[in-house]
Amino acid sequence: MSLHLAHSQSYTSYFAGNATDIVTQPQFGICLMGGAGESDDAMIWFLERANGGDVLVLRASGADGYNDYMYSDLGVSVNSVETIVFNNAAAASDPYVIGKVNNAEAIWFAGGDQGDYIDYWKGTAIEDGINNLINVKQGPVGGISAGMAILGQAYFSASQGTITEEQALANPFAPQMVIGYDDFLEVPFLENVITETHFNDPDRIRYGRIVAFMARLGFDQGIIPLGIASNEYGAIAIDEFGLARAFGEYPEFEEDLVYFLQPNCEGPQGPELIASGSPLTWNRSQEAVKVYQVPATVNGENTFDLTNWHDGVGGTWENWYVEAGVLTRTENAAQPNCFLGLESLNELEIKLYPNPAQSELWLSADIDGIATYRIFDLSGRILQEGTKNSEPWLISLHQFTAGYYYIELSVANRAKTIGFIKTP
């Protein structure tokens, strides 16, 4: 193994393998790991998708721990494995580092502090190179712990420090709840997704934290928020068809589980109470969040389809809900009788303005044909409904008291719900 040190000392490079770059055609894939340790089987899946090319490990702490593991220990032939440790943000503009990102056939993000990755890479040539690998080269990317945390379209930035499950549920608007959205990495099948790692770590249980993240994400962005989470030793491998496989050592280790979370699509989807300084209530008849829990096995035979967020093999459905900041999980739940496919999530764009509004609210939506609408209060009661076939559309709010409401717009079996605030 050879060691490359930059003259600027803005980064450190560790290299294993053939120093002559080769070009191969990689295969798309996303590999997500929970954080306590790598799944060899999932990592083999990831490395095979590099198709013998060059693998790049990016990190902001640590050293060369991945080099031998990826290059020789797992039995997958790759041209090289190089680890670049970012010592500061200046490395993101270094020509050597940029060249390595642009030439890689696979990129892996180590654990650490996701805030460093966001601070160092967002808005730089490194971000551009990663997105080019994913969407142009269509090569594999993956990460563990902080490396998994940055791969969703939404992400917890940790820029104001971490937050516990109890703190997030007690106040979803706590200063630490800094959630980025649609401004960093562009990863297919992870649209509107926020990820969570170390799910079952006894020192930092995070089951309720991702529910608080989702509630806040839906409130802030007016989207249907989705979640993907992994226990400490679980791993999720997503192929080019959007099929997610769960890797781990279940049933030998019964805690090797992964999770796919979505609001219950069979009724009003937002929280009953989400306000600064108040505990979260997201109950919806004790079925607020539908969760597909999947045992993670050595062969990865248990799956979940991310093209419709409905079809799974080998897992079980649960209902999760929050009442006054307390999370409850109910096993043996019914599978949702509706779909949250990518088309329904992304094609229907709704804009409400102004928001908050005092007396009138304008609605604009990219629709073709007649749409139906329903306005709900926080208890789920339908207060107003009708149809629209022209836009923009003016909604009078004179009959509503001050508070938070939801409007659901449906067209051609697609629906989307967005919240708005009526001021006094």
Structural commentary:
The protein is an alpha+beta fold and 424 residues long. It has helices at 40-48, 65-73, 95-103, 114-121, 125-137, 146-149, 165-170, 207-221, 342-346; strands at 2-5, 11-17, 29-33, 54-59, 80-86, 106-109, 140-144, 154-156, 179-181, 193-196, 226-230, 235-238, 243-247, 257-263, 289-295, 303-305, 312-313, 316-323, 326-330, 350-353, 360-365, 371-376, 382-388, 393-396, 403-411, 414-422. The strands form 5 sheets. An 11-stranded mixed sheet has the order 1-2-5-4-6-7-3-12-13-16-17, sandwiched between helices. Strand 10, helix 8 (207-221) and strand 11 form a beta-alpha-beta unit. The protein is globular, with a radius of gyration of 22 Å.
Describe this structure in a few short sentences.
With 424 residues, this protein is of the alpha+beta class. Helix content is 18%, strand content 33%. The protein folds into 2 domains: 2-330, Class I glutamine amidotransferase (GATase) domain (Rossmann fold); 349-422, Immunoglobulin-like.
Mean pLDDT: 90
Low-confidence stretches: 342-346
Which sheet architecture does the biggest sheet show? 11 strands, mixed
Q: Could you say how many structural domains there are in total? A: 2
CATH class of the largest domain: Alpha Beta
Count the beta strands.
Answer: 26
Cα separation of the termini: 68 Å
Q: Count of DSSP helices?
A: 9
CATH topology of the largest domain: Rossmann fold
CATH A-level architecture of the largest domain: 3-Layer(aba) Sandwich
CATH superfamily of the largest domain: Class I glutamine amidotransferase (GATase) domain
Tell me the overall shape: globular
* Structural class category: alpha+beta
Rg value:
22 Å
Spatial sequence of strands, sheet with the most strands: 1-2-5-4-6-7-3-12-13-16-17
Q: What percent of residues adopt helix (DSSP H or I)?
A: 10-25%
Oligomeric state as shown: single chain
Proportion of residues in extended strands:
25-35%
